[in-house]
Amino acid sequence: MKVTGVTAKYKAKIGSNEILIEEAKNEKGESIYIFTSVKGISLPNGEKWTPKTDDAKDLDRNNVTEDLKKNFRKVVQLL
Which domain of life, per UniProt (predicted)? Predict the structure, then answer.
């Protein structure tokens, strides 16, 4: 599966975990959700890398689609 574009980015804090949620489209035009745990990684050269979250909106569970709510609940249960 190939991601052709990201239509929206959200971030949410669940306990001590910060989650980045990307709403994307694949090559068939289907919506998919990409959930990423935001953690810093130390690179071999000593630098620290974290996923870019400054362009993500805070997740407002009242203003998202039912499909995203359902998938978000499943992810939270796994944490």
Answer: Archaea
* Confidence (pLDDT) at 44: 94
Take residue 59 and report the two structure tokens written for it. Answer: 């997740």
Determine the pLDDT at residue 45. Answer: 92
CA distance 70 to 67: 5
Query: Do 57 and 11 form a contact (C-beta atoms < 8 A)?
Result: yes
- Rounded Cα distance between 36 and 75, Å, is 10
Phi, then psi, of 73 in degrees rounded to 5: -60, -40
H or E segment to which residue 62 belongs: none
**What range defines the domain where residue 57 resides?**
3-78
